[in-house]
């Protein structure tokens, strides 16, 4: 094999190129979650600093929080989650790890609050949402107050085209979390449903 390659420089060059491509692919496959996690940590630090500012509080009260700006902090003690959620679910917004569906209710208000989050990259805050159980608390802190929801049913999955899970719930205080499932695949969405269990403490 070595003699054959030595006699055919084009083959040797091609093999070297293929090896290089495979190496880069391996680095991307295994390294991307690591580097996206580092970026996410830096971004979360910056978002936390903005979250307590007067400018964000004013924007929140005026319903003018822009895409990628901090909207709420989600805490799920059962799975060790405590992250800032930004407004928007675009690719760039979700680099924060979790984002609020813009057309759904604001945290702690009547209607369906819907939040999407990553499971394998960008801090993977929703990595273990499948482990949430009925009754587990989910707290949302906003610039003007906090509230706590309680998981109402076991996590379930739907097709990505099923948007009914984020439909509004008039007259009800509900929360919906969405993420890809199984991990590393976008074939389905895992859904967590919760309902308000405490009176919102809004300033």
Topology, element by element:
Layout: H1 2-7, H2 9-51, H3 54-61, E1 70-76, E2 81-87, E3 98-100, E4 111-117, E5 137-142, E6 145-151, E7 156-158, E8 173-181, E9 188-196, E10 201-202
Parallel strand pairs: 2-3, 4-8
Antiparallel strand pairs: 1-2, 1-5, 3-4, 5-6, 6-9, 6-10, 7-9, 8-9
Quick overview of this protein structure:
The chain is an alpha+beta fold. Helix content is 28%, strand content 30%. A hairpin with a 2-residue loop joins strand 5 and strand 6 (145-151).
The helix/strand series, from N terminus to C terminus, equals HHHEEEEEEEEEE
CATH architecture: Beta Barrel
Largest sheet: 8 strands, mixed, barrel
Can you identify the CATH superfamily? Sortase
Enumerate the strands of the largest sheet in spatial order, edge to edge or round the barrel. Answer: 1-2-3-4-8-9-6-5
How many angstroms does the end-to-end distance come to? 75 Å
User: Given the helix and strand composition, which structural class is it?
Assistant: alpha+beta
Range of strand content: 25-35%
- What do the pLDDT scores average to? 86
CATH class: Mainly Beta
Give the domain tally: 1
């Amino acid at each position: 094999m070595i003699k054959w390659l030595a006699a055919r420089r084009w083959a040797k060059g091609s093999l070297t190129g293929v090896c290089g491509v495979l190496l880069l692919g391996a680095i991307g496959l295994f390294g991307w979650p690591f580097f996206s996690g580092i970026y996410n940590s830096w971004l979360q630090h910056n978002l936390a600093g903005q979250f307590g500012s007067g400018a964000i509080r004013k924007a929140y009260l005026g319903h003018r929080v822009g895409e990628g700006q901090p909207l709420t902090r989600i805490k799920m003690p059962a799975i060790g989650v405590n992250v800032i959620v930004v407004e928007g679910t675009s690719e760039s917004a979700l680099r924060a790890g979790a984002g609020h569906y813009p057309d759904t209710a604001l945290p702690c208000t009547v209607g369906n609050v819907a939040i999407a989050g990553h499971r394998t990259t960008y801090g993977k805050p929703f990595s273990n949402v499948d482990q949430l159980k009925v009754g587990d608390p989910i707290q949302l802190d906003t610039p003007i107050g906090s509230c706590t929801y309680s998981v109402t049913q076991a996590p379930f999955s739907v097709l990505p085209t099923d948007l009914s899970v984020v439909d509004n719930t008039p007259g009800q205080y509900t929360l919906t979390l969405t993420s890809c499932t199984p991990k590393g695949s976008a074939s389905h969405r895992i859904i967590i449903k919760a309902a308000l269990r405490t009176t919102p403490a809004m300033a």
